[in-house]
Each structure stands twice: as structure tokens, then as C-alpha cells.
Amino acid sequence: MRTYNGTRIILDRFLKDNDLQDCDIHFHTLRHTYSNTLFEAEQNPKVIQQLLGHRDVKTTITTYNSVDKSYFDKAKSVFNDQYQVEQESIANIGDDELDEELERLLKKKECRRKQKDFEM
């Protein structure tokens, strides 16, 4: 196991050898990059918490998880894909069938909601 100062010397030498000493790269920056990479790879926040050595997962999630535009795009895509399939499934049916299909979809959503509540 290396000491902080020993590791710091290695990082400083690497930055100097690669002409990066003016790029504002610090251990803390590397730590954020490491955690963001794991979050973007959809790793479990509790695992990331353990790897970073935090006592509380809230610290890991709120401090070490940067949200960029790709997160929003992905969330919108999941939502749109979910409702697009259901919209297509009811597009070409009559009124009576539509009522039955809407009832079935509502029950399906309710079951999913209860299942997610149970998982939390």
C-alpha cells in the first residue's frame, strides 16, 4: 500500500512528464471521474459507496454523481418507449375493445407500481 505522499509524487511526475501540470488535475478530480464512470455504467450506488469509502450512500450519490444531458435523454427515451408501445397497441381497436384494453393497461401499471414500491 502506498502512502498519500508517495502516490502524490507519482501523480506529479506523471503530470510533469506528460505536460499536464497546468491542467488542474488533482486526486479529487480523478476520484470524481472514477465515480462518474461507474454511475454512467449503471453500477450499484452501494458498491460505489464502498469503493469510495463513504459511510453514507447519500454522500456518494449527491457529491460524486454528476448528471449530464445524456442522463435526461436516456430517461426521456425510456419513458417515451414505454408509452409508444402502449399507444400503438390501442391505435386500431373499437370503443368497447378500447375500454377493455385501457383497463388492462391500468391494471398492468398498478401491478408494476406495487412491485416497485415493494422493491424499494
Summarize the structure.
The protein is mostly helical. The chain contains 6 helices and no strands. The chain folds into 2 domains: 60 residues, no CATH class; 51 residues, no CATH class.
The main pleated sheet reads as:
none
Instruction: Note the gap between the termini.
Output: 38 Å
Please, how many helices? 6
Rg: 24 Å
β-sheet strand percentage: under 5%
Number of separate domains: 2
- Report helical residue fraction: over 70%
What structural category arises from helix and sheet content?
mainly alpha
Along the chain, the helix and strand elements come as: HHHHHH
Note the overall shape: elongated
Low-confidence stretches: none
Number of strands: 0
**Mean pLDDT over all positions:** 79
What key attributes describe this structure?
2 domains
Note the topology.
Layout: H1 4-17, H2 27-40, H3 45-52, H4 57-63, H5 69-90, H6 95-119
